[in-house]
């Protein structure tokens, strides 16, 4: 047995890069998919709309922990293959981010007044041009606070990757706690690091929201 | 690559027990969390800056740290303070505290949504302070926050799966148990996810029905 030292804290800080990696993967893959989801949900095609709605309902109706376990234990066992933790975990977070971002951005797109797309159509813009130059920039501004808010949720939720043994910040905390028998110090440090990352983002989201309300 | 759900039937009782415990956990966290939320929201305009600071710090710390770590803190750290809670109780306390922080924000926005003039109108009608609070402030505020409050309750239902990580007996714990007995990982987690999905859908339907019954009075909107 040994005490909790500065090097344990350094290990935690080191583990933040894996938390960040998960967040970046989820955003880089889940972002475009989320945009696709948002476009499907706002399209006039009932089939596309329905498919996106079903995906959204499933992702929002199932615990993230369930998705993680399903992609980490379930699918590889079913297919009889070995999948590295990073891949399984990334798939789960990508699906999670795509569904939630899609829903946030759908809200943003629908919040832009229909007059705008009618005006764009009158100007002779194609549907894509109208989306790209008229709807999307406004929808982006409207949806930005909620998007930043979701980013905070995503960062906090990457802690669930620890459950399948993926060493990120939360897992580093568990390991430190087990090695030093100092759960209070270990988990307090982990919480402090999460807080230091998430709190500024929360404040940013809040100030964006205030700015938006002044303009509108 | 074969699916075999038959083995799971033997564990029917375990699954039912898990469902029951998950719903219990959700109910406890919802009721306790909403009480904390209402109290916190009422205190967040307190004259004493210390009280306001305390509420603000509570909300921000809980909302900006992962629930999983909060459950670990309650479960592993409280024994050092001489309070040894069993896993289920520890998870219930942690989830209540978590739900409480989000509820404070929700209730605060609800109370803020009631215009000053409406309260004054209630007072002019000769209602007592309690009647004004109940009929003029709380109920209309509840109606305004109903969508965010109910989706938070659903998030708590899903989040209660985290309790399995301190081996509290609930649905996800059952899943891990059955998986360890049958090795049918795919089927077990598919079934458990489906059960959660059905619970969430049912809860949404119940909330929608309750909204129609509870908030029938007309509004200007």
TrEMBL record, chain A:
What name is this protein filed under? Amino acid ABC transporter membrane protein 2, PAAT family
Q: Which organism is it from?
A: Roseibium suaedae
> Which NCBIfam families is this protein grouped with?
HEQRo_perm_3TM
Provide the taxonomic classification: Bacteria, Pseudomonadati, Pseudomonadota, Alphaproteobacteria, Hyphomicrobiales
Q: Which residues form a coiled coil?
A: none
**Keyword DNA damage included in the entry's annotation:** no
Per the UniProt record, which residue ranges are transmembrane?
12-38, 50-73, 79-101, 134-155, 175-201
User: Which terms does the record give in the GO molecular function aspect?
Assistant: transmembrane transporter activity
Instruction: Give me the Gene Ontology terms describing cellular component.
Output: ATP-binding cassette (ABC) transporter complex
Q: Where can this protein be found?
A: Cell inner membrane; Cell membrane
From TrEMBL, chain B:
What's a single GO MF annotation on this record? transmembrane transporter activity
Which Pfam families does the protein's record reference?
BPD_transp_1
What membrane topology does this protein have?
Multi-pass membrane protein
User: Which compartment or compartments is the protein found in?
Assistant: Cell inner membrane; Cell membrane
Going by the UniProt record, its keywords in alphabetical order are: Cell membrane, Membrane, Transmembrane, Transmembrane helix, Transport
The record's listing under InterPro entries reads: AA_ABC_transptr_permease_3TM, ArtM/GltK/GlnP/TcyL/YhdX-like, MetI-like, MetI-like_sf
A GO BP annotation: amino acid transport
What family name appears in the similarity comment? Belongs to the binding-protein-dependent transport system permease family. HisMQ subfamily.
| Record protein name field | Amino acid ABC transporter membrane protein 1, PAAT family
Q: Which organism is it from?
A: Roseibium suaedae
């Amino acid at each position: 047995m040994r005490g909790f030292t500065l090097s344990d804290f350094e290990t935690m800080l080191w583990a933040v890069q894996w938390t960040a990696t998960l967040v970046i993967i989820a955003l880089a893959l889940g972002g475009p998919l989320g945009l696709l989801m948002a476009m499907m949900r706002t399209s006039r095609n009932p089939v596309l709309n329905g498919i996106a709605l079903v995906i959204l309902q499933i992702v929002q109706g199932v615990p993230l922990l369930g998705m993680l376990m399903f992609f980490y234990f379930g699918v590889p066992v079913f297919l009889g293959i070995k999948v590295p933790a990073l891949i399984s975990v990334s798939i789960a977070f990508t699906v999670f981010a795509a569904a939630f971002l899609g829903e946030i951005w759908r809200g943003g797109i629908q919040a832009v007044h229909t007059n705008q797309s009618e005006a764009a159509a009158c100007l002779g813009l194609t549907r894509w041009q109208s989306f790209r130059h008229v709807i999307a920039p406004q929808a982006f501004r409207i949806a930005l606070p909620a998007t930043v808010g979701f980013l905070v949720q995503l960062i906090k939720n990457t802690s669930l990757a620890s459950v399948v043994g993926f060493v990120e910040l939360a897992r580093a905390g568990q390991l430190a706690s087990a090695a030093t028998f100092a759960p209070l110090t270990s988990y307090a440090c982990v919480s402090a690091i999460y807080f230091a990352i998430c709190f500024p983002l929360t404040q940013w989201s809040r100030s964006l929201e205030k700015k938006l309300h002044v303009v509108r | 690559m074969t699916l075999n759900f038959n083995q799971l039937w033997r564990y029917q009782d375990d699954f039912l027990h898990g469902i029951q415990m998950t719903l219990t956990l959700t109910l406890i966290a919802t009721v306790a969390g909403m009480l904390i939320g209402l109290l916190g929201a009422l205190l967040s305009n307190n004259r004493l800056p210390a009280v306001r600071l305390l509420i603000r710090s509570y909300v921000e710390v809980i909302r900006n740290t992962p629930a999983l770590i909060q459950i670990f803190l309650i479960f592993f750290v409280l024994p050092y303070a001489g309070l040894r809670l069993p896993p289920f109780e520890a998870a219930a306390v942690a989830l209540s505290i978590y739900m409480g922080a989000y509820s404070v924000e929700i209730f605060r926005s609800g109370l803020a949504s009631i215009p000053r003039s409406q309260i004054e109108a209630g007072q002019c009608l000769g209602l007592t302070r309690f009647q004004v609070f109940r009929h003029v402030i709380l109920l209309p505020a509840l109606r305004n926050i109903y969508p965010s409050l109910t989706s938070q309750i659903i998030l708590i239902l899903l989040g209660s799966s985290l309790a399995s990580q301190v081996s509290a007996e609930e649905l996800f714990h059952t899943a891990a148990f059955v998986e360890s007995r049958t090795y049918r990982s795919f089927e077990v987690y598919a079934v458990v996810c489906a059960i959660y999905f059905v619970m969430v859908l049912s809860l949404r339907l119940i909330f929608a029905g309750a909204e129609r019954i509870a908030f029938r009075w007309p509004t200007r909107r």
